Amino acid sequence: MDKKAIVVFSGGLDSTTLLHYVKSLGYEVYGISFDYNQRHKKELDYAKYWGKKLCKEFKIIDISFMKQIADNSSLLNDKEIPHDHYTNENQKITVVPNRNMIMLSIAVAWAENIKAEKVFFGPHANDYTIYPDCRPDFVDAINKASKLATYNHIKIEAPFVDIQKWQIVSLGTKLGIDYSKTWSCYEGKEKHCGKCSACQERKETFKILGIKDPTEYDVE
Length: 220
Description:
alpha/beta, 11% strand, Rossmann fold, 7 helices, 37% helix
């Protein structure tokens, strides 16, 4: 029987690449995504697409209670999404407090239940400035906690935590990923807005690599 792994993924560039990468390592992949009442819920359409395509089993878990406890985040309210670079201080308004710890705790429970060896998630080096739960210290701490909290000593791994987004997409391109089937925009409209920090970062990534950006933007 194949070794089992849970992959936490949203339908975005990084986590979709992670899903393909873990699959390429020979794991029997179980995918998990989360509906936390995010304004860009459209990302879950792309998570479903890849979940059905690549996963032995795929779940979307409803954690919409997050809006009750984290509604200061502009991803969970009607406040304007800042149209600045993702490293700017004002991007902190997009942080959903403790989101990764909550999601990973649920993923670890599922991993323990199905006797999976590992849980993978996809933070990267570009995230360090704004998102505390995407930093290497957090990854180390949550991995230790997971091993202590489970009989099977479930490992949490973040293989992209020390590399840049362009390096992730470079890997994904080699894996043959169709990035038109991913979603980044925080606005969650019909097309990528082209202005929010997630869209700016997406544009920069393809530009750095010198490859065609398959994304349709409202503003180029």
